[in-house]
Amino acid sequence: MVSTWSGTPLHILNVLRSRPDVDVETICPMGQKFKRIFFPMKLRARFTKEFYGWEREDLALRYFAAQVESAVRRKNLDVVFSPGSIVGTRLNPTIPSVFWTDANFHGMLGYYGSKMSIRTLRQGKRQEEMALRRAEFSCYASEWAAAGARKFADPERVKVLPFGPNMRIEHTRQDVDAWIAQRRAAQARRCTLLFIGVDWVRKGGKVAVEAARRLNEAGIPTTLRIVGCTPPEPMPPFVELLGFIRKSEEAGYRRLIDLYRTSDIFLLPSRAEAFGCVVSEASAFGLPSIVCETGGLTETVREGVNGFRLSLDDDGTGFAEKARLILDNYDGYAKNAYAEFQNRLNWETSVDQLAGLLKRAAHRGAE
What we know:
Elements: H1 8-17, H2 39-47, H3 58-75, E1 80-82, E2 97-101, H4 105-108, H5 118-134, E3 137-140, H6 143-149, E4 158-160, H7 173-186, E5 191-196, H8 205-217, E6 222-227, E7 239-243, H9 250-262, E8 265-268, H10 277-284, E9 289-292, E10 307-310, H11 317-328, H12 330-343, H13 347-366
Parallel strand pairs: 1-2, 2-3, 3-4, 5-6, 5-8, 6-7, 8-9, 9-10
Helix pairs in contact: 1-13, 7-12, 8-11, 10-12, 11-12
């Protein structure tokens, strides 16, 4: 589904299916009829306001493995691929497997602020370490995530494959060049900032507002477009609240395209972010990005090339200053942003590397 994990698995699947050298058989949805067994533990965690993840319980791991093994035998598959470490954890060692995700369990502990139950903490660490030892290749969207995984696996089997945009990209470089020119021609002395995020606090919404305020105070008429959430407090007049837009619906998809096409700079001052596919999306439309240095988000922006990275301590002042630098050489930063999309922040490039790893894993399994 487009909504599953923001559409990441679907995009990976579609690009894999488009390749003539890869035959894809899906094993989904995975059966979950037994999860009611874990209801008492889930209820207890709800009472203590903790997160409980039944999927990492050993019984669940064995049940997932049994389903996959049955499909492997029935369909005579060469290798198992999963967009996450869980499904392949308990697979028979003779079946080669590869997974690709944006974070490892250990690196996410406490990172997004949720409190995890002691049982999930224990089971999660055990499951992740087993999965890393078990997989032929463990792929992550960033070096930040991969570095943590290498503590538990052969570093040669841990790979970095950046994520692309979680939306269809149907335009060309010529389109982007035209949009960049139109932006400056239409508002050479103005600035339109774009902020997309469902979690106002974690995504750093207040910092984005302060950056827009500083630009306006500096004499640069600035509008901040907010997509995905409703701030808990009243917003100043330079803020446009656009609400949640469903990219899975054609009207929503077209609306997002228009926002990316007509905005000048993308802001993502996240407090915590495993990767940030929205930066890949912004880059695909030639939008320079300014982000915070946190998690894998740091690696979506090359400092001074397609944008800037700022400390989590910045209150918006630095974001405004970097935005002015971008506006002073907008054509260069915008074209660099699209080049980053073309060279690394796209699904085709990363899936090409993934296909090579899948073939290597299958070859080892046949030995």
